[in-house]
Amino acid sequence: MLLVLFKKWLHLTGRESRAPNEGGAPERLVEQIQNGNDELRNELIRQYRPYLLKTTSRFFRRYIDPQRDDAYSVALAAFDEAITGFSAEGGRLFLGFAETVINRRLIDYVRQENRHAATIPYSAFDTDSEDNAGSINRIDVAQSIDAYQLERTSDERKLEIAALTEELALFGITFHDLVTTSPRHQDSRAVLLRMGRRLASEETMFNFLRDKRQLPIKELCEAEGVSRKTVERHRKYLIAVSLIAYGTYPFLQEYIGMDREERGATP
User: pTM score, two decimals?
Assistant: First the structure.
């Protein structure tokens, strides 16, 4: 499963965020803010407003009016959240981290708006005239909503893959690596999927992975009853599966069969 997804991803064009470079590298400014220089926070947000507008407009594939669109306010709040939560460990870049936070908050915003829209009766779309000739076709409305949902789902999958790519980079892992190390046999995938879920669910082991950037090989072997050689051979794949299982990756979790594994089915 992951192998197919990785190969598809390799054909996508990577996106890099760009923003004005006023006042020095944003990582350095964020560090100063986190160290107590609160005056810089508003200045940094002001400096990167064009970046926020571009990121939000790209997400919705249309121009976002910062004076009228609530989505821009969501992006502003997310950027402020990113300033507080950013860590430069492993050479991580602030703008890449900020874009991930912004996109996730925009996804939450869209989902909330969609749930609200789902409660609106179709009669709300009617524009009845005296002869009812102006009534909007309800089938057309339903098809438009379905098409929008499909497009948003595709965008959310891409965002999850981009976020996972950033997480994997902290471990020195690329999607090229995963293509070459992914297991070919279904039985092997099932075993590794189970091990990855175990690693994500055991707090002590996952904290070790996250802090040390290494697999807790001894503990994992003892918990799963597998050989050290098996774990070492599939180290990169196991790390990827555990990150997917631990993180907010609902589409990727479904794609590699974690929902089926929970019900006891073979992935």
Answer: 0.49
Residue 86, classified by CB atoms within 10 Å of its CB into exposed (0-12), middle (13-18) or buried (19+), is buried
Position with higher pLDDT, 41 vs 124: 41
User: From CA 17, how far away is CA 57, in angstroms rounded?
Assistant: 13
- Model confidence over 148-191: pLDDT tens digits? 555 666 777 777 888 888 889 989 998 888 878 788 888 888 88
Domains and CATH numbers, the chain: 16-169 (1.10.1740.10), 183-262 (no CATH)
Assigned token pair, 242: 């555990």
CA distance 252 to 160: 7
The Cα 152–Cα 61 span in angstroms is: 11
Q: Strands, DSSP E only, in 15-97?
A: none
Length of the chain: 267
Report which secondary-structure segment, H or E, holds 101: helix 94-118
